Amino acid sequence: MAPWVLNATAGLLLAVAPAQATPPPVPPGPPITVPAEVKGDVGDFISVPATTAGKEVRWLCPDRGLRVFPADLLKDTKTAVVTAPAAGVFRLYAYTAVDGSPTPAVLCTVTVGPPAPPPPPPPDPNDPFTSALKAAYAAEPDPAKAQQLASLAALYRQAAELAATADLTDFGSLFDTMARAAATLGVAGKLPGIQAVVQAELKRVLPSARSAPLDRALAKATFLKVAAALEASK
User: Fold this and answer.
1) What is the DSSP string of 147-216?
2) Which CATH number is correct for 30-113, 1.10.3720.10, 3.40.190.10, 3.20.20.150, 2.60.40.10?
3) Using one digit for the tens of pLDDT, what is the confidence trace for 207-223?
4) What distance in Å separates the CA atoms of residue 169 and residue 174, rounded to the nearest whole number?
5) Cα(110)–Cα(84) distance, rounded to whole angstroms?
6) In this structure, how many other beta carbons lie within 10 angstroms of the beta carbon of residue 5?
7) Cα atoms found within 13 Å of the Cα of residue 142, Cβ hemisphere only
8) How many Å from the N-terminal Cα to the C-terminal Cα in the chain?
9) Which has fewest Cβ within 10 Å: 79, 198, 225, 230?
10) What is the mean pLDDT of the chain?
């Protein structure tokens, strides 16, 4: 084939071939971002990270109660460290400069909750109540006694919460509510030896009259002690 024919054919192919599309430019991301919300407990040191190409980040909280560590005390200003002595919801703004231009401030909501209650002390292994429960558990013939024991401990943890929060006025109402919960959990009548030890402890500590006004603090502390002793009796 003559050279001019080859050249013409190549030109025709180039003319009809679609031009390769140029990908659209990727839009730049925001100059600075922070989490929409961070959470922590009262007294905790709560970290709030910022993502940005800026070298330094400035932080501002317009709400009273949230303490922001000074930036010059931190190695990296792109992470704020805050704390609060009381629960609340606070606004924390961050801003920086990129290529010499200041960025808009972005908002992070800091939610500070109440401190977690301290765990109750473990039961004293030399306590007569704990010792009696261990002996009753060892003598219990029910092959499902471990599962039943866990359910019984859960019942008394629920009872502790009921004693502290439920709309009850006397011990009789509390015990009736516990009886219904025991039926729901399937522990009514189970582990009779263990339940006899628990009932003896409750009679020793709590008022015997059903009409006695509900002492919420006493009931909660007693039920938490029973739950912990049950969990430790295996």
Assistant:
1) HHHHHHHHHHHHHHHHHHHSS--BHHHHHHHHHHHHHHHT-TT-SHHHHHHHHHHHHHHS-S-TTSB--H
2) 2.60.40.10
3) 989 999 999 999 999 99
4) 8
5) 10
6) 9
7) 16
8) 97
9) 79
10) 85
Q: What is the predicted pLDDT for the residue at 76?
A: 87
The residue type of 168 is L
What whole-number distance in Å separates Cα of residue 48 and Cα of residue 59?
Answer: 10
Residue 98 near residue 53 (C-beta atoms within 8 A): yes
Q: At 107, give phi and psi (nearest 5°).
A: -110, 135
Please tell me the distance from the alpha carbon of residue 118 to that of residue 6, in angstroms, as a whole number: 88
Residue type, 17: A
Measured between alpha carbons, how far is 230 from 224 in angstroms, rounded to an integer?
10
Confidence (pTM):
0.51
